[in-house]
Amino acid sequence: MTDDTPVLEVEGLVKHYRGRAGTGTVRAVNGVDLSIGRGEILGLVGESGSGKSTIGRCVARLTAPTAGRVRLLGQDISAMSRRELRPLRRDVHVVFQDAYSSLNPRTKIGDIVAGPLRQHREGDVRERRGRAAEMLERVGLPARTATRYPHELSGGQRQRVALARALVMRPRLVVADEPVSALDVSVQASILNLLLDLRSDLGFSCLFITHDLSVVEFVGDRIAVMYLGGIVETATRQELFAHPQHPYTQALLSAAPVPDPREGRAGRRVVLRGDLPSQTSRVPGCAFHTRCPVAVDRCRTDAPVLTGITAPDHLVSCHLVTPEAGGPDITQGGNGLVHHTS
Amino acid sequence: MTLLEVSGLRVTYRTEDGPVLAAKDVSFSLGRGEILALVGESGCGKTATAMAIPRLLDDTRATIGGSVLLDGVELTALSERRMRDVRGKDISVVFQEPMTSLNPAFTVGRQIGEVLRQHTGLTRRQVRERVVELLDLVGVPDARRRAGSYPHELSGGMRQRVMIATAVACDPKVLIADEPTTALDVTIQAGVLDVIRDLREQLGTAVILITHDLGVVAEVADRVVVMYSGRHVEHSPTAAVFDRPQHPYTIGLLDALPARAALRGGRRRLTEIPGLVPSPATDPDACQFAPRCPRATAECTAARPALTGADGGDGHLVACYHPGPRRDA
After folding, report:
1. Of B27, B80, B188, B250, whose Cβ has the fewest other Cβ atoms within 10 Å?
2. Is A238 domain-assigned?
3. Using the beta-carbon criterion (under 8 Å), do B253 and A252 form an inter-chain contact?
4. Same domain for A221 and A253?
5. Domain range list for chain B
6. What digits encode the pLDDT tens for the residues A20-68?
């Protein structure tokens, strides 16, 4: 592996779940490509049912993809057996939203953090205890926390423990699935700061999954926007927020409430009509055409491909984006729009 | 003109571990057609305060003190029977999770109609027509057909619209909305917030909006009450609380927001509020934020600061000995 090999490369990832009898197949992820470089944080943002968590689960191989490739440090892990995966589990760890249900309530914090070391038979008891203590200190918890149980800690402290456990093996990739969504803003701020500090110190890459645009704008180096099982746009944080091209990205950004009365109320807001189509349905053409205010006939029949149209590192999957004009302006669209200028 | 006047409201829960003081001496007023936001983090007492108004707290566990005047009528003194008339007709409530508030066994039309049958003398035909009107009002497309749908056939956003339609069926004076959009995706949330704003425009409904989301506050509220540990620490018109926050806690809360960090175009660093919220079992005669406050002095732990007018007037109140805008840089 050379220095510029991405830590993670995903190609054509598909994950379908068989539903209950008669309900049809749940098409959670329908062909996703993405990559994460060394030390990079990729923010994967989308609404409920967009498939963002499923991608996280496939990347960490908590579930096997239906089709497609997942390469971790250049090695294809998509079809590996549990035994083959075991050594690779050192390199990818997961942090979930709810640290309370992902930490064993009967295990002391010190043993929780040392857990991965034990599974990978690293060092002896004393050494493992030392490494766990060091990790607890790095995440800003006092040494005495090691002898406590999860229920004795606050939500923010539990999330610090989850981070310590995920990082104790010094993995190359951390999959963080809504890690701050259950926390109050003042606590959320400290966890986000901590994540960025640890990334600078330890140099891991991160797939950061969230529904919260302001969080992803703060934490993501690059951002991928998901809709109904596919990525519709990928760009650097600055580029995506300054020049969103895909109509869905534009709608999402315009819908997010801005905590500044003048900014928010003065801005034009686009409210999408309708709901997300069912994940069991197969939408022909562009997955977003049923709600897109600027869709044309072609969008209903031909599926667009995620490509760089205006710049090689700004990928978008929309027929209406052109090299000259960039993305369509959905506030100029016809039906399905409600404008609020007051 | 004042519609609702809450003064010295106290809510105490009895628990196995002793009393929990959920709301301590909260006062505010609500004018006709006004949207007032109660904002704060988990456990600050915003829901206890709001639910004490229609007396929706469990009598066996919660005691309510203080006064709640609705159009001059003291609600805390009403009999339970009179109170039942007030709920649904004068004051109604929308909760965060619409699926648990709707009965899965009845069509949404029947559930909205139930409120009308309880509180009005409309005929069956009139009730049916009114239900369709209400669904139209909250932006449910194809209202006549949707009235025959069961809750599970609707999406989260549509269910929340149905809840709002139920709540405003009898044209209440006050609508209490407890985190009405927290369980919804942002693109759906935007539509529901529009509905709340439209109701105020069209029906003149006054709204108490309980939320933890300062973005939602900025989008819809006219005035804001910021709560911390069961007390209101700042009370102001919405624009002023964002432009000239006075209380160190309010400032901390705003600076912790990733969206504000992005807006200020600053470094990738958020402001943290050190420490933890105090135990809800205690109510010392001191500023409860003092242990976490960068401005705290001996004065702050000697006596509780009163809510007083801040610089700039226009009804901006703050409970702090050292109020004022940011002092960094």
Report:
1. B80
2. no
3. no
4. no
5. 231-329
6. 777 788 899 999 999 999 999 999 999 988 999 999 999 999 999 999 9
Structure tokens at B282: 């205690």
Pair A217, A296 in one domain? no
Contact A186 B273 (CB under 8 A): yes
User: Domain end: A202, A227, A252, which one?
Assistant: A227
Put simply, the answer to whether B256 touches A271 (Cβ < 8 Å) is no
How do residues B163-217 score in pLDDT, each as one tens digit? 999 999 999 999 999 999 988 888 888 888 989 999 999 999 999 999 999 999 9
Residues of A with CB under 8 A from a CB of B: 47-48, 154, 184-186, 188-190, 192-193, 196, 211-215, 217-219, 241, 251-252, 254-265, 269, 271-273, 275-276, 338, 340
* Residues A205 and A268 placed together within one structural domain of the fold: no
Q: Do B260 and A262 touch (CB under 8 A)?
A: no
The amino acid at residue B12 is T
At B329, is the pLDDT very low, low, confident or very high (cuts 50, 70, 90)? Answer: very low
Give residues with Cβ within 8 angstroms of A22, minimum separation 6. none
Whether residue A341 is predicted with pLDDT greater than 60 in this model: the reply is: no
- Residue span of the structural domain in which A280 resides: 243-332
Is B183 within 8 Å of chain A by CB? no
Shared domain for A206 and A304, answered yes or no, is no
The region, left, alpha or beta by phi > 0 then psi within -120 to 50, assigned to residue B63 is beta
As a whole number, mean pLDDT of residues B57-81 equals: 93
- State pTM to two decimals: 0.90
Q: What is the mean pLDDT of residues B89-115?
A: 90
For residues A219 and A247, state if they share a domain.
Answer: no
Residue A208 within a domain: yes
Token digits of residue B237: 């018109």
Q: B189 in contact with A at a CB cutoff of 8 Å?
A: yes
Can you state the angle between helices B186-203 and B156-167, rounded to 10 degrees? 20
Same domain assignment for residues A250 and A145: no
Give the Cα separation of A273 and B108 in Å (integer): 21
